[in-house]
Sequence to fold (351 residues):
Amino acid sequence: MPRQINKVFFLIHPCCWALTDEPGAEYMETTGVLPSEWYAARNLEREVNRKQKEFIQRMGADEVLIIFPSGDSAPMRELIATAERELGERCLIPQPPVRAVPPQMLEMEEPIRHFLEDEEMEGRDAFWEVVQPPLLAEMKREIRDACSAIGYDWSPHVLRVVLESRLCARELATALAARELSVDPATVEAEAFGEGFEQCAMTWKALLPGYLGWHKPIENNYDLSVSGFTLLFNSSFRERIDLAGDIRLFLWEKWYGIPVAFMVRASARLADRRTFVEIPTDLGIFEVWSERKTVWPAAAWPFGADKGILRVPVMTALGRFPGLNRCYLIGSSFSYDEFRDLLLNASISTE
Fold:
């Protein structure tokens, strides 16, 4: 008789800093990362890997762990060994084929149109060849439907996310059935953690519920994740708040009570339009950070700052849109409760 699975966890790329003993000079020059920042993230990763192993050891009999490995380091092997020892058949490690998009697409205008219509494009057939015809037709229809809704000028890298997510969903469904592990798509809950918190740990799970037919999104667990964003290094995580639809508000507190916030959509569809949170600019001083730099206050803002309202992108995990996407908000002159209330009451708009 199949075993009922009520919760599924995704461990995504948990050992990225373990792939090398020290940061290379070229890496630091290209990224602007300081040695102290790299080692701080490396140390945090080691602590979080320990917590992840302890979490695996506490998992219940109605729970499954799905691992997306990051390389073949000793810490990665230890996590996999722990999961396989503790969970047995309830540990799954999907291995969908990896295909990069044709590199010339990165220099094109409307690259998705070229990809769909140019049958002679070098590398296009190699990208598609890992998909069987029934699924291939479904994928092409999904991409064309998205283009009808949002146009053709979006990041080609998203095609790889679609491809691998569809193949991964099919592999997971097959593996669960083969192991007689039953998931109720209407009630199953799921959670992801790993690296980076606002990068791969969000990107590689975002499309899976839709492809698997699950009704609920895969949530993200910050406490079992690592972020390379240095503004969080001296911040304590406080809470995650579920807002309307699939929008999630994550909140931290920096030293001396300065609040930090991050807003993201918990799930994704390829045809989704960009979402914004609208923040009044006359209620206090706040900053918007992207990657390693402040992007607001600024002389110009790409999304409009009319009539005392700043439109800040809510992160979309697919990274489909150009420009700013992963935006952290720092409530410089606000208390934690004031900034929390400001964001809870802020309007949400769609492009």
Observations:
- The chain has three domains: 3-96+172-220, 103-155, 230-350.
- Residues 3-96+172-220 form one domain.
